[in-house]
From TrEMBL, chain A:
It is a peripheral membrane protein. GO terms for molecular function: ATP binding. This is ABC transporter ATP-binding protein. Keywords: ATP-binding, Cell membrane, Membrane, Nucleotide-binding, Transport. It comes from Alsobacter ponti. Residues 18-270 form the ABC transporter domain. It is found in: Cell inner membrane. Belongs to the ABC transporter superfamily.
Automatic annotation (TrEMBL), chain B:
It comes from the Bacteria. One of its GO terms (molecular function) is ATP binding. It holds the Pfam family ABC_tran. This is Dipeptide ABC transporter ATP-binding protein. InterPro entries: AAA+_ATPase (IPR003593), ABC_transp_ATP-bind (IPR050319), ABC_transporter-like_ATP-bd (IPR003439), ABC_transporter-like_CS (IPR017871), Oligopep_ABC_C (IPR013563), P-loop_NTPase (IPR027417). Belongs to the ABC transporter superfamily. It comes from Alsobacter ponti. Residues 6-256 form the ABC transporter domain. Gene3D superfamilies: P-loop containing nucleotide triphosphate hydrolases (3.40.50.300).
Length: 347, 328
């Protein structure tokens, strides 16, 4: 049921440059199947920023890895669904050879930890040049010149010197800038960023977020920003998908989500963030009782039912679909996966 | 004012930088470089700063896991900064620590019950039977079930593991717990459970906390007073409401402004610091913050400002303190 309902709402102002349809990515570990991504659909319009937010193990990183064909091997595989990239086709159907031509080219990725995702034995300039030379035939000198340009673009001081530095000689913030330079090297249509600032200090995070915002506006690339930090979402994204236990539970424009969260999980998540006190007395934080169900043994009904304060019998019987609120089919439609919000037309 | 539970005076910890082969070390990292602070009974002191500012080293010194290079450390009026292990033992019962990574700080081959009992065994408290009773009581206090007694750390979630870390810290009924980034590894919905637990325990047992964190949102929630560290020194100290309403030091202002708030209507941060934290082996002369400071003057590049101000609100900045002096 769910995919059909999801598919009925594809109206968007800008055509999507990335369209994920009913994506299932499972990890087969021995006899258990971990349903890490369990039917995820979203559209990323050209030039926009869409954020996927959720807690550890909700499947947000696996969604990004599945899009790029980088699921852990041999356990991970896409079992169902499509990943349409504008001008390329369905990434889920491409073999690794074809994917290698797409990755770092039409779509690129910035990972969380810039120390482990850069190669420690090569100079950073060489690594940026490699990203260019993978996809076009240019001389070493030309590639190096462009690497220096990119380093300058991402705000690294004295780029022609830093070009010859090894990753360990740079600070965490500088390394993440190098990762962004590599991701931008081929002017991708879509950039995926998985927790790009989580490993950074707060003042450096502010610098990197500002840089990503500026570069995205200048290059026109669409950004899929994966994060656990609702503060980062509020600052960066136009639209947001909240993930829980492998599925999207709420999708909406960023303003609506923070002003009026609909899904009980989203509400709990926002309420559990410590708020500025403005000198007021300390109040107990609202927390969500319990923990996320194991993705290998999901409950029959709603995945959040076990922790939800509003649970009723239907929640334990059937999984609610992700449907537009109040039949809104416009481009800014809010969608929520909760029986409390399913109108008569969908029930 | 009653005597503080814990007081540090000009506390320092210097580490030699490893020398090369046949060349002895000549440089030192001044991880903690002259820190004065105090913690009252039932009070929470928040200690904030970015990686490498020395907050964890300071925390380890406060519980005497690390010996200060210089300075004095008073606990309940006794100078514990220089005590040896034997003399420290009674102090260790009263000062405990909760670590950041609840997995790395639990023994994977020990049951949770044994983990909680361990401090009691070390300090020869009670009989095996009474220790077992105490462990079950502690499991209940931190919101776990009796059946967790026989389980192992890998069977727990991150939040439950941190509850075990807290139960172990509580076992000897301490007066002070130093919490080093206790919720940084946890998801936000679990983080709030642990913060609530810490607040409840404080009310119940009259505990004092030193709460070390890089997350200002969490510190604003839990702390009564806050000290901001930068490269081994405290640059500002104030009651939590004052610090967030009227931060004086330019570094504090930038830190607060850089917090990404869950409010899409708020514009991007007003104050974004350029550059990163300088190398602590060779910190800038004068005020450590001057290379990144929008207010820096000639004097800041040569002379180190002191942490001065009122009893309540102290700041280490030439420019701010001059302006405060001229306006009062």
């Amino acid at each position: 049921m769910t995919p059909a309902l999801d598919a009925s709402v594809q109206v968007r102002s800008a055509p999507p440059v990335l369209s994920v349809r009913n994506l299932h990515a499972h990890l087969h570990l021995g006899d258990t199947v971990v349903r890490a991504v369990d039917g995820v659909s979203f559209d990323l319009p050209a030039g926009a920023t869409l954020s996927i937010v959720g807690e550890s193990g909700c499947g947000k990183s696996m969604t990004a890895l599945a899009i790029l064909g980088l699921l852990p091997q041999p356990a991970g595989r896409i079992t169902e669904g499509e990943v349409w990239l504008d001008g390329v086709g369905d990434l889920a159907r491409l073999d690794q050879r074809a994917l290698r031509r797409v990755r770092g080219n039409a779509v690129s990725m910035v990972f969380q930890d810039p120390m482990t995702s850069l190669n420690p034995v090569f100079r950073v300039g060489w690594q940026i040049a490699e990203a260019i030379r993978m996809h076009e035939t240019v001389s070493r000198e030309e590639a190096r010149r462009r690497a220096i340009e990119l380093l300058e673009l991402v705000g690294i001081p004295s780029p022609s010197v830093r070009c010859d530095a090894f990753p360990h000689q740079l600070s965490g913030g500088m390394r993440q800038r190098v990762m962004i330079a590599i991701a931008l090297a081929r002017r991708p249509k879509v950039m995926l960023a998985d927790e790009p600032t989580t490993a950074l200090d707060v003042t450096i995070q502010a610098q990197v977020l500002r840089l990503m915002k500026r570069l995205q506006q200048d290059s026109g690339a669409a950004l899929l920003l994966i994060t656990h930090d609702l503060g980062v979402v509020a600052q960066m994204a136009q639209r947001v998908c909240v993930m829980y236990a492998g599925v999207i539970v709420e999708e909406s424009a960023v303003g609506d989500l923070f002003a009026d969260p609909l899904h009980p999980y989203t509400r709990g998540l926002l309420a559990s963030m410590p708020k500025p006190r403005h000198g007021a007395a300390r109040q107990a934080l609202i927390s969500i009782p319990g923990t996320v169900p194991p993705l290998s043994r999901l409950p029959a009904g709603c995945r959040f039912a076990g922790r939800c304060a509003h649970v009723f019998s239907k929640c334990r019987e059937a999984e609610p679909p992700l449907v537009p609120v109040a039949g809104d089919l416009g481009p800014g439609a809010r969608k929520v996966r909760c029986w409390l919000h399913v109108g008569s037309e969908a029930a | 004012m009653s005597a503080p539970l814990l007081e540090a005076r000009q506390l320092r910890r210097h580490f030699p930088v490893p020398g090369r082969l046949f060349r002895p070390s000549t440089q030192t990292v001044k991880a903690v470089d002259g820190v004065d602070l105090h913690v009252a009974r039932s009070e929470t002191l928040g200690l904030v700063g970015e990686s490498g500012c020395g907050k964890s080293t300071l925390g380890r010194m406060l519980v005497r896991l690390d010996r200060p290079t210089a300075g004095e450390l008073f606990f309940e009026g006794e100078n514990i900064g220089d005590l040896d292990e034997t003399a420290l033992k009674p102090v260790r019962r009263k000062v405990q620590m909760v670590f950041q990574n609840p997995y790395a700080s639990l023994n994977p081959r020990q049951t949770l019950g044994d983990t909680i009992c361990e401090p009691l065994v070390v300090h020869r408290v009670g009989t095996p039977e009474s220790r077992r009773k105490r462990a079950l009581e502690l499991l209940d206090i931190v919101g776990l079930q009796p059946e967790h007694y026989a389980r192992y750390p890998h069977q727990l979630s991150g939040g439950q593991r941190q509850r075990i870390g807290i139960a172990r810290a509580l076992a000897l009924e301490p007066r002070l717990i130093v919490c080093d980034e206790p919720v940084s590894a946890l998801d936000v919905s679990i983080q709030s459970q642990i913060l609530n637990l810490l607040t409840d325990l404080q009310g119940r047992f009259g505990l004092s906390y030193v709460f070390i964190s890089h997350d200002l949102r969490v510190v604003e929630h839990i702390a009564d007073r806050v000290a901001v560290m930068y490269l081994g020194r405290i640059v500002e100290e104030a009651p939590v409401a004052t610090l967030f309403a009227r931060p004086l030091h330019p570094y504090t202002q930038a830190l607060i402004s850089a917090i990404p708030l869950a409010d899409p209507a708020r514009p991007t941060p007003e104050v974004i610091l350029e550059g990163g934290v300088p190398n602590p082996i060779d910190p800038p002369r004068g005020c450590h913050f001057h290379p990144r400071c929008p207010l820096a003057e000639d004097r800041c590049r040569v002379e180190t400002p002191d942490l001065v101000g009122t009893q309540e609100h102290k700041v280490r900045c030439w420019v701010v303190n001059r302006e405060l002096a001229s306006s009062s």
